[in-house]
Amino acid sequence: MNKEYSIGYQIKSLNNMMERKIISESRKENVIPITLAQIKIIKYLFFNKNKIVYQKDIEEELSLRGSTASGILNTMEKNNLIMKSKNINDARKKEVKLTNFGMEKI
Questions:
Q1: What span, in angstroms and rounded, lies between the C-alpha atoms of 6 and 24?
Q2: 2, 12, 59, 106 - which has most CB atoms within 10 Å?
Q3: How many CB atoms lie within 10 A of CB 57?
Q4: Going by DSSP bridges, is the β-strand pair 94-98/82-86 parallel, antiparallel, or unpaired?
Q5: pLDDT range class, residue 20, cuts 50, 70, 90
Q6: Please, are residues 76 and 36 in contact by the beta-carbon 8 Å criterion?
Q7: How far apart are CA 29 and CA 100, in angstroms?
Q8: What is the Cα 66 distance to its own chain's centre?
Q9: pTM (2 d.p.)
Q10: Confidence category of residue 60, pLDDT binned at 50, 70, 90
Q11: How far apart are CA 97 and CA 87, in angstroms?
């Protein structure tokens, strides 16, 4: 079967086109674009705001590779949606928290 005809391929293609359109429109309006992955991370952080959340937790929850999660989180930090801070006990781990601006996006 040709991949262009599989329903999964078509759904993924449609999702990509919609995300590109949303990002394109938000840039025209001078608004920070938020992707679906970022929305899922914001939601996860909001519902776990009373716990310490590490990047590894987000990777496992959303089934993301480390490099993918790192890229998304770096973009979110640059856009002031989250902040990362070193863990007191283990400097290799970084805690991830929503900023007030990130909370407003919920």
A1: 27
A2: 59
A3: 17
A4: antiparallel
A5: confident
A6: no
A7: 22
A8: 12
A9: 0.71
A10: very high
A11: 12
Of the chain, the percentage scoring pLDDT greater than 90 comes to 46
Q: Are 76 and 82 in contact (CB under 8 A)?
A: yes
Phi, psi for 83 (deg, rounded to 5): -135, 145
> Which tokens is 12 given?
């993924």
Distance, in Å, from the CA atom of 15 to the CA atom of 50, rounded to the nearest integer, reads 32
Three-state secondary structure of 47-97: HCCCCCCEHHHHHHHHCCCHHHHHHHHHHHHHCCCEEEEECCCCCCCEEEE
Residue 28 confidence (pLDDT) = 67
